[in-house]
Write a structure and sequence with these properties.
Blueprint lengths: L8 E5 L2 H4 L12 H4 L2 H4 L2 H6 L1 H14 L9 H12 L4 E5 L5 H5 L4 E3 L2 E8 L5 E3 L18 E5 L9 H10 L2 E5 L11 H4 L4 E6 L11 E4 L2 H14 L1
Parallel strand pairs: 1-2, 1-7, 2-3, 7-8, 8-9
Antiparallel strand pairs: 4-5, 4-6
Helix pairs in contact: 6-10
The structure holds adenosine-5-diphosphoribose.
The site of adenosine-5-diphosphoribose has 23 residues, from helix 1.
Length: 235
């Protein structure tokens, strides 16, 4: 019996894990924040001032999820396989709002920054799965008011599931961060909170928080993640 498999593992993913599936990251060259100002499309104030612009930004992203060419890649799939084998606690926390982890088969998955394929009512909190464009004035199916917005955690808002994530980090024996620049808190601070974990970072390059990790694997996620998991399970 391999006792390692009964330990607690927490994995954090960012835009880099979906990059090779064809979803643009935010801060790399040609990233989304080169074309759009965060203040214009990713804050509650922006939505209040120009809802049409904000909806258009997320409608485009949501429409991409329907592109048949958009598929989970080898890194998403390897994480789903690891979860299937793992006997201890396994938590996958993603900052991504795409649906690729779910489509790859990940189950214990928390979308801390929300989901593109869901909307919610600002008045009654009703959440609705949503794959179409969202108009600025869309009635809530529950309360009827015109308050539906993307279920995205914008800058200045509280990420989801924080209590559950902090509890898992506190118990984590392994913390693995994949494809995130470590520039956005609270996710960037998770490595500090996983106080007893062995910490591994997988990224195309060093990040601003690389020094906090015990080891680094540098390269594309589709290569490094399956390779890491293979070694992890056999060594
Ligand atoms: N394989 C591994 N890492 C990659 C790859 C790849 N193929 N391509 C890019 N990366 C790395 C980059 O080196 C970078 O460190 O992924 C990271 C992407 O960083 P960001 O664009 O900043 O994305 P992320 O860290 O997920 O952003 C966090 O910021 O704007 C917000 O809400 C948004 O959830 C997002 C948050």
């Amino acid at each position: 019996m391999d006792l390692r498999l009964f330990k607690n593992i927490v994995i954090l993913t960012g835009a880099g894990i979906s990059a090779e599936s064809g979803i643009r990251t935010f801060r790399d060259q040609n990233g989304l924040w080169e074309e759009h100002r965060i203040e214009d499309v990713a804050t509650p104030e922006a939505f209040a001032q120009n809802p049409a612009l904000v909806q258009r930004f997320y409608n485009l992203r949501r429409a991409q999820l329907k592109d048949p060419n958009l598929q989970p890649n080898a890194a998403h799939k390897a994480l789903a396989q690891l979860e299937e084998i793992w006997e201890g606690n396994f938590l996958l926390v993603t900052q991504n709002v795409d649906n690729l982890h779910r489509r790859a088969g990940s189950k214990n998955l928390l979308h801390m920054h929300g989901r593109l394929d869901r909307i919610f009512c600002q008045f009654c909190d009703e959440k609705v799965d949503w794959t179409e464009d969202l108009l600025t004035q869309h009635p809530c199916p529950s309360c009827g008011r015109l308050g539906m917005r993307p279920d995205i955690v914008w800058f200045g808002e509280m990420p989801y599931h924080m209590e559950e994530i902090y509890a898992a980090l506190d118990k984590a024996d392994y913390f693995i961060s994949i494809g995130t620049s470590g520039q956005v808190y609270p996710a960037a601070g998770f490595v500090q909170l996983a106080w007893k974990a062995k910490k591994i970072e997988i990224n195309m390059k060093d990040t601003g928080i690389s020094a906090a990790f015990d080891s680094h694997l540098v390269g594309p996620a589709t290569v490094e993640v399956p390779r890491f998991i293979q070694n992890f399970l056999t060594n």
